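Here is my example:
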Amino acid sequence: MGSKYRSCLYELPNVCDRGRGEESVDIDADIGGEGGGGDGDGDGDGDGDEGGFIRGRGESTASSNVGDDQTYTPARLAKLPDSDTCVNSMIYSPKYSSDGKIATMNSSTLSFLDVSAGSSRSVGTVGTVEISPGGRGVAAKWDPHHADTVACLEDTSVVSVDVRSMKPAHAIRDAHGYSCRSFDFNPNRPHVLATGGEDGLIKFWDMRKQGPALRVLRGHTHWVNDVRFNPFHDQLLVSGGSDGMCNLWRVSR
């Protein structure tokens, strides 16, 4: 039997600031460094004003290399279905609070799961879409403007999937001369996204339109590993590459 790749859903603790004052916080002490951490009185009871972890469901008293009152072992709420190949992306539905959907993407398939009840008995595969028969799937992101659309990188192409029909809706083939490495949706303009590729280029696309890129940026000498829009000002974009460069771009419409 071949190897299986596992994904799990965990509940993590809340982190809150309790009565934060103007004085700076000693981070090393707060996580159980010398002096016991917590409130700094040496008893490690964590009842000071620096803030800390708040216990919740799945509380564990398992030992840790930090003070006991700063220890939290996350509760595993559900074990998601195993994958035959490496899982490259896991994304929450924009409507997760109401529909409980998660999408996972491995090198060939985009899968939609229902984890609404947070129990392993309730996790089920809602649907799957084959994105890359050749096993060249890279990443997936939910469209922030359309909750029924997920976009995926597949080798040199970008493919959008309609969650309702579980079928590909639009595709930009050969977006880059070599494999795509990253992409991001414009936070303010629907259907518009930026891609970065192994050809060292950054390109802008409208997923509804076939044809050349809306714009091409040249500023890297090697792979573009990540591109991100500023979440508030969509004319600002940052990119990072395997050439060791991080670039901040201003892109006018």
About this structure: The domain at 78-250 is CATH 2.130.10.10 (Methylamine Dehydrogenase; Chain H). Confidence is low (pLDDT under 50) at residues 17-68. The first strand starts at residue 5 and ends at 11. Residues 8 and 79 are 4 Å apart (CA to CA).
